[in-house]
Amino acid sequence: MAENPNPTRMELLKAKTRVKLAKKGHKLLKQKRDALIMEFFKILGKAQDLRSELNAQMKAAYSALAVAQAYHGMQEIKAAALAVKRAPGVKVEVRNIMGVKIPSLEATQVEKPLLSRGYSIVGTSAKIDEAAEAFEKATDLVVKLSQTENAIRRLILEIEKTKRRVNSLEFVLIPRLESQAKLISFRLEEMERDSFVMLKTIKRKLERAEQPTE
């Protein structure tokens, strides 16, 4: 950007156009920032609920595990755990929130039917089944919580980036463009005053030259 722009009407028009575009961009970025902040608090509330739910579920899962261990002993619990062959899958999709790409995770085959878990139901009791079911529910919550916390991190980064751009436009670029436009306008007015004075001087000289001499 030129520090000493040419004081012409074309440059003044360009300067005013740049100011207008910068203000429009500033308005759009502020709208984006506000929308991202609203989405952030919405997801933050969801994450807080999920954390509370996960803490309660993990407490219930370890309690069920302790009961199962008391009934069967650690060796049988380990054997049942090692017999579980299939790990839960995760389906990943991408959501777009105001230009921010956020992975959407969905756990698949987490909560399994009794006969699909892998361990034998002959030498086990319902206590192991209850512990397995409790940990399956906890695993599903872990996936959901990881999605929300990932979204929170991405939104924070985008909010900070957008805020920096808003501040840069508001406090640096727009004032500089407005100052440049005012400078061009001032110089044009000064040149017009000088031209007017010069024309008046020339007119007076011509009038004197036309007057008859005595």
Characteristic terms for this protein:
mainly alpha; 214 residues; 3 helices; 2 strands; Helix Hairpins; 74% helix
In short:
By secondary structure, this protein is mainly alpha-helical. 74% of the residues lie in helices and 8% in strands.
Please explain how this structure is put together.
Helix 1 (9-72) packs across helix 2 (74-83). By secondary structure, the chain is mostly helical. It has a two-stranded antiparallel sheet with strand order 1-2. It has helices at residues 9-72, 74-83, 126-210, and strands at 89-97, 100-108. It has three helices and two strands; from the N terminus they run H-H-E-E-H. Strand 1 and strand 2 (100-108) form a beta hairpin. It has a single domain, classed as Helix Hairpins (Orthogonal Bundle), CATH 1.10.287. The radius of gyration is 37 Å and the shape is rod-shaped. The model has no long low-confidence stretch (mean pLDDT 86). Helix content is 74%, strand content 8%.
Distance between the termini: 60 Å
Tell me the total number of β-strands. 2
Uncertain residue ranges: none
How is the CATH topology named? Helix Hairpins
Largest sheet: 2 strands, antiparallel
Shape: rod-shaped
Query: What is the CATH architecture annotation?
Result: Orthogonal Bundle
Gyration radius, rounded: 37 Å
CATH class: Mainly Alpha
- Order of SSEs: HHEEH
**Pairing-aware structural class of the strands and helices?**
mainly alpha
Q: Strands across the major sheet, in which order?
A: 1-2
Query: What is the residue-averaged pLDDT?
Result: 86
Number of helices: 3
Classify the helix fraction into a percent range. over 70%
Beta content comes to 5-15%
Number of domains: 1
